[in-house]
Amino acid sequence: MPELTKKLPINNPVELRFIGPSENQEKAVRYLKRMGFTDVSDSRPFREVFLEDCDEEELPGLALVGARCKEDITQKELSKLTGIPQGHISQMENGKRPIGKTIAKKLGKALDISYKVFL
């Protein structure tokens, strides 16, 4: 699956879009890659991918599980980092507890991800 799963190691990423002759597309992509750009033309937004298999209400919990796994930490370790009880993290991951803005910000900071994916 071509979706990006890791945060790009770029401080201020930008996305570029161009219109031009199709015969120069490969040349342009190769040149931009040498400059440090990543071709994401075949990637899809994570919400679009996840909504194929689940409901909108399940997304915050799935995002939490995914972000936690990406950082390779347990619920207990995340609990220590955020001050959120481990049981609450489990409930959020299973869709039994909502993730509000304040909690989302704590989770985002601990998991090095935008808090908005949890809302």
Overview of the structural elements:
- It is a single chain.
- The chain has 119 residues and is mainly α.
- Helix content is 45%, strand content 0%.
- The chain contains 6 helices and no strands.
- The chain has helices spanning 25-34, 46-50, 59-70, 75-82, 86-93, 101-111.
- α4 crosses α5 (86-93).
- The chain is elongated.
Throw out a few tags for this protein.
mainly alpha; 0% strand; 6 helices; elongated; single chain; 434 Repressor (Amino-terminal Domain); 119 residues
CATH architectural label of the domain at 47-118: Orthogonal Bundle
Distance between the termini: 24 Å
Mean pLDDT score, rounded? Answer: 84
Q: Which descriptor suits the 3D outline?
A: elongated
Q: Which fold name fills CATH's third level, the topology of the domain at 47-118?
A: 434 Repressor (Amino-terminal Domain)
Which structural class do the helices and strands define?
mainly alpha
Indicate the low-confidence ranges by residue numbers: none
Number of helix segments? 6
In percent, how much strand structure appears in the residues?
Answer: under 5%
How many β strands by DSSP? 0
